[in-house]
């Protein structure tokens, strides 16, 4: 079976159970964003601030998130973003899920245009959904 890091990033994909080990073995930097405590846009932006270890001057908006994810100085050339509790987040916050997915997919495309890889991995402890 071919695992996620052996292929080019393809949208938001299901995180393999051993994502951290696979990432380390393929020299992919990995960060986790916990979406389980998101209650609105502000707490969503705070989740990214924490997960990406951003500074306090992070703009807390869609443009700022895109800028961080496409900044070659801020993100390594091979970078995976694990979205923890993603399926539940999408169900609870449909109004936030669509713009978030747009920003993430746009950032993934821009990274590819820069010769970089940005994997977007949805992690659900009890789900086997293949793609969103």
From TrEMBL:
Residue span(s) of domain Barstar (barnase inhibitor): 30-121
Coiled coil: none
Similarity comment text for this entry: Belongs to the barstar family.
Protein name: Barstar, RNAse (Barnase) inhibitor
Organism annotation: Deinococcus hopiensis KR-140
